[in-house]
Amino acid sequence: MQDIRGANTFNTCNLCFKIISNVTKHPSACGFLHEFNIYFALRLHRVRLRHRKPSALLQDRSSNNTMAAILLDLLVEFLSTHLMKSFPFEIYGHCLDTCFHLLSHQREHSIRLDYDWRQLWKALFDLSRFVVKIARPSASCLKVLALLRKIVGVFNFFITCGDGFLQGPDVYDELYYELIRMASVVEGINEFCHQTSTSSDAQLKSVANELLLDSANMRAIVKHFEAKINAYASKSNLASLTEAQVYEVIRENYDALTLRVFEDLHTHFDLPFPNAAQFEKDALLEMIQQSRRFCLNASVAFQSRFSELSVIH
């Protein structure tokens, strides 16, 4: 999963995430992933980064949680560690689809997963900031817009449906706090939409306007609470507020906030990949060839071992 710079490893990783995305569409598979009574012990390897201590590179996860939480850890790890120049749009699309499928299942069955959602939100904010920076007035611009629609769709699901699967009201406070703290990312998405909406390409203009509409709730939250925070600071004669004071402002000003309820939150926005079928074919071929090589090597090793045993006897 970590090294996807080569064509073979990229195709294999892409196929694996596509399989995971399709599997999590099915209620029975999602039910198994959210089962609390299954015993397991897993170790999740994490990429070596500057800010990570060596002890954090191998994360032990066991049956005190669900397989869904481990899968979310895997998704967050990929989202955070593959922000590269040759950006794997398609794999990121599968990751976001998988995340959406898990959240939809949790909401539908009122499953309140014991999970630190802030790490997922951080990964999504970092991803949004990165793809806006790499966007170019070319074919990649359309992919960026489609990917941003998926990201904003996940945030909208948390904002409008979170009461059905988040652990409690305090998690909503954390979500709104992170949106306010990452106001620059929300503004960056807004500016990118406005820039792209002036394009001569009709498809780009259409998708940019749709994204602008989708991100209305995020902008509304930032605008509403920034005004309340500024008013609180002015009234209290404070240059800046502490985290606790910001949380207090958030809790006291939910009532005046107006948000839009989306009817098509379950809609998935496919990324434009004309050669997707060929990529999948190449990945399957590579996996078959690897399996054959493994079987051949194992057979040769067994034959060598049998020859040694026959000499001993």
TrEMBL record:
User: Which Gene Ontology cellular-component terms appear in the entry?
Assistant: cytosol; membrane
Q: Which residues form the Armadillo-like helical domain?
A: 60-269
Xref: Pfam families: ARMH3_C
Q: What is its main location?
A: membrane
Under the heading InterPro entries, the entry gives: ARMD3-like (IPR039868), ARMH3_C (IPR013636)
What are the record keywords, sorted?
Answer: Membrane, Transmembrane, Transmembrane helix
Location in the cell: Membrane
The source's superkingdom equals Eukaryota
Signal listed as a keyword: no
Q: Which PANTHER family match?
A: ARMADILLO-LIKE HELICAL DOMAIN-CONTAINING PROTEIN 3 (PTHR13608)
- Quote the protein name from its UniProt record: UPF0668 protein C10orf76 homolog
